[in-house]
Design brief:
Radius of gyration: 27 Å
Enzyme class: transferase
EC number: 2.1.1.196, 2.1.1.289
CATH superfamily of the largest domain: Vaccinia Virus protein VP39
Oligomer: single chain
Protein name: Cobalt-precorrin-7 C(5)-methyltransferase / Cobalt-precorrin-6B C(15)-methyltransferase (Decarboxylating)
CATH topology of the largest domain: Rossmann fold
Shape: elongated
Distance between the termini: 50 Å
Strand content: 15-25%
Number of strands: 19
Keywords: Cobalamin biosynthesis, Methyltransferase, S-adenosyl-L-methionine, Transferase
Largest sheet: 7 strands, mixed
CATH class of the largest domain: Alpha Beta
Pfam families: Methyltransf_31, TP_methylase
Length: about 425
């Protein structure tokens, strides 16, 4: 016998009860408790049972719902499809899927694409409602079509202003307001017009579609030449070369949601490519040189990458309070390699990766000894690269400084070491 599904999770649109199915209406009629936001509960003035407003501490409300559901039927009402950026996952996690029946409506995203007349099976979906917009522009880089839940802080006009600041203007935008309700409005903008628009209602979905039909998804691995970054002068040779960057980033094992530390960030080349590989993650670029800090920030702006936080300070002291990393790159230590490695290996997530670039014999020796003190045997690669350079009508090879790349994995629960 299947368990009693005492909780019915009902999706509802801005037209209220008008579009509810008979099954959803019957569920409300049989319920002793109705739960939802104030706006949703106002659609049911005739309901005679207990009403609970979903606000503030959702966990405490769900605890109360679980208690009430032991003796009577409960309906939880939420916008559109409750399992699409909604409260549905929290309800099911707290109550158990076997006790919850879900009756969804079309989500506001689905309505938005329908009203704009756009196919939506190739779109990416982002929610900035009640969330930080950090990384929004980085995520745009690999998408041709994006649908966004906004809020007062991250309104369509504010997002458009950020896009203009970083050169992301080759988009068409649709702002879809109060979908399904009597005040529904759908408008089309270019990015400049959207940034200037001041009369957008709070209940909206923003659709962005690239205006250039020839646009293609960028390469998965950035592999940017160092000439594409501003650099400190006359320290041009100190930037991490792209061949070294490629191997170092691969050794770091970066995932789309990784937290990365780039210690001794310099111009920020490693930070930027790490950020592109982790569009849903976050990169901390730690740099002590004031000129380097400003150049790093300039490069972030030039490459329209917004999931990198520049930390001005000297490691290891500057690492205090940063989110625990999944991957760490050390490109410069200012003579504190052993101390930095100690802090990094303590803070690194189990299974996380540390990669060190060492040029001098002193740094090579200190890195190796520091890792061995912790019982870790690193993978070490000696990289010697020569590039073809013009010489009159010919090409000749010009060698770059050899570099040693140390890579080590922090043991997980199994104690395995890479």
């Amino acid at each position: 016998m299947s368990p009693r599904r005492a909780i019915t999770l009902i999706g509802i649109g801005d037209d209220g009860c008008a579009s509810l199915t008979s099954r959803a209406v019957n569920a409300v009629m049989k319920a002793g408790v109705l739960v939802g936001g104030e706006r949703h509960l106002e659609f049911f003035p005739q309901f005679q049972g207990e009403k609970i407003v979903l606000e503030g501490g959702v966990a405490s409300v769900l605890d109360r719902v679980a208690e009430l559901a032991e003796e009577q039927n409960v309906c939880v009402v939420a916008s559109g499809d409750p399992l699409f950026f909604g409260i549905g996952s929290l309800v099911i996690k707290r109550m158990g899927a076997e006790h919850v029946e879900v009756l969804p409506q079309p989500s506001s995203m689905q309505w938005a694409f329908a009203r704009a007349g756009l196919k939506w099976d190739d779109a990416a979906f982002v929610s900035l409602h009640g969330r930080s917009s950090e990384g929004f522009l980085t995520r745009l880089k690999s998408q041709a079509k994006v649908a966004i839940f906004t809020d007062d802080k991250n309104s369509p006009s504010v997002l458009a202003q950020r896009m203009i600041e970083q050169g992301e203007t080759a988009w068409e935008a649709w702002v879809c307001e109060s979908l399904g309700g009597p005040d529904e409005r759908v408008r089309r903008f270019d990015v400049a017009a959207l940034a200037a628009c001041q009369d957008i209602g709070p209940l909206n979905v923003l659709l962005l579609v690239r205006s250039d039909p020839s646009w293609r998804v960028p390469a998965t691995i950035p592999f940017l030449h160092e000439d594409q970054f501003a650099k400190r002068m006359p320290k041009k040779g100190l930037i991490t070369k792209r061949e070294v960057r490629l191997l170092s980033l691969a050794a770091m094992g970066i995932r789309p949601d990784s937290v990365v530390w780039d210690i001794g960030a310099g111009s920020g080349s490693v930070s930027i490519e790490a950020a592109l590989l982790a569009p849903k993650g976050l990169v901390y670029a730690i740099e002590v040189d004031p000129e380097g800090v400003e150049i790093c920030r300039d490069n972030l702006l030039a490459h329209a990458v917004d999931n990198v936080r520049v930390i001005a300070g000297r490691a290891p002291e500057a690492l205090t309070g940063l989110e625990a990393p999944d991957a760490v790159f050390i490109g410069g230590s200012k003579g504190s390699m052993e101390e930095i490695i100690e802090v990094v290996m303590d803070r690194l997530q189990p299974g996380g990766r540390l990669v060190v670039n060492a040029i001098t014999l002193e740094n090579v020796a200190e890195t190796y000894q520091s890792l061995r003190k912790r019982g870790l045997v690193p993978d070490v690669t000696l990289l010697q690269v020569s590039r073809a350079e013009p010489l009159a009508h010919y090409l000749r090879y010009e060698s770059l400084n050899p570099i040693q790349i140390f890579a080590v994995e922090k043991p997980g629960q199994t104690g395995a070491v890479a």
